[in-house]
Every structure is written in C-alpha cells, then in structure tokens.
Design brief:
- It is built from four helices and no strands.
- The chain is 77% helix and 0% strand.
- The protein is elongated, with a radius of gyration of 22 Å.
- It is mostly helical and 98 residues long.
C-alpha cells in the first residue's frame, strides 16, 4: 500500500476525532432553532394571537404583524443569514490562534 494514500487518511481521521465544536459555536448554532421553537410554543399557548384563526374585523396590517410569526421569522433569519457568517468568523479566529 502506498504511504501517499494512507498518510492523508490517517491525518484526516485524527483531525476529526480531536476537533470539537466550541461552546461558542454551539451557542451560535442553537440560537436560531431555540428562537423558532419559542415562537412555535408561543403560538401554541396563545393561539388567539394568530389572526388567521379568528379574522373577524382584522385588516392586512394584522395579518402581516403577528408576534409569534415574527419571532419564528427572526429565528429563521438568524439561522440562515447571520449564524453562518458568525461561525465562519469564529473558525477563522480559532485557526489563526493555533
């Protein structure tokens, strides 16, 4: 067996086992889903806040700004737009330290 093939595979497997996610990265990754879960729980425990269920006398503004749905939207925005950039910056800072 050639050492060119075996060498990189061993180093890659060693890197995977020794590399752990930091607590900061885990916190950043979990903020979006926890916020989304909070919005869903809020919508379940206070269904009267969801205008779609009781739309008598409600206008477009009431449909547009529903607090539980806004919280879910903010969680999605954070998870899909903000968190990946923060995680990249965190990894870059970690790589430059050591």
């Amino acid at each position: 067996m050639s050492s060119d093939i075996v060498g990189p595979l061993e180093r890659a497997s060693e890197k995977r086992t020794t590399e752990r996610r930091s607590l900061r990265a885990l916190a950043i990754e979990s903020l979006g889903p926890v916020t989304i879960l909070g919005g869903v729980v809020w919508a379940i425990f206070q269904p009267y806040r969801i205008v779609f269920l009781d739309h008598a006398g409600k206008g477009f503004y009431d449909y547009l700004l529903q607090p539980p749905l806004l919280v879910i939207g903010v969680g999605l925005f954070f998870a899909l737009v903000i968190a990946p950039g923060l995680l990249d910056d965190l990894r870059a800072a970690h790589d430059s330290e050591g």
